[in-house]
Design brief:
The protein is of the alpha/beta class. The protein has one domain: Vaccinia Virus protein VP39 (Rossmann fold, 3-Layer(aba) Sandwich), CATH 3.40.50. Helix content is 29%, strand content 32%. It has 7 helices and 12 strands. Helix 5 runs parallel beside helix 7.
Length: 218
Amino acid sequence: MDRTAWGEVFRRGKELYTRNARPGERVYGEELVREGDEEYRHWDPWRSKLAALLLKAPPEPWFTTIRSLLYLGGAHGTTVSHLSDALPEASLYVVEKSPVSFAPLLALCRRRANLYPLLADAQLPERYRADVGEVDLLYQDVAQRTQAQIFAENAEACLAAGGRGILMLKVRSVTQRRPAPSIVAEARRTLEKRGWKVRATVDLSPFARDHVAMIVAG
């Protein structure tokens, strides 16, 4: 395994892996690989948009300095589990609205000490701001029409000065009627009007169609 510049994320050929924090345990049926005394979990970019971003974007040096993270839209915990591996010293607060998805997410968090689950609505950050405090990274992956506004409100509530954000913009969740570039441009304008700067945009195809990752800073 070759270490990447993305924290405890490794690469073998074209495939990404994280060192398994719980050797012998799979989270979603992923492949486990042993090398020497270490076990690694395959991180599939076709199932995780963050893995797709790490494959397509240049390394960001700030990623290795993250000590706290707010994750909006944790779902069943696929990507969350790899972040738990990749950032073992960080505290990861995971928001999920659906009780159905929250049940397996809660079970995952009970097995991993750096995960803190929150059954909450990402549109209402005031309800969990006191629990989360200020974080170094805001990561959002929710299917809402007002994705950029939700991101901006959470950044204002919980992102520390000098922090970064990653917005996984689900273009077709905003509207089916307009071309993707206009939706991305509108999201950029929404963020910039709220005082946030989009440092980069990364098209996640072919791994995730109609998804664009926006890397944001203050």
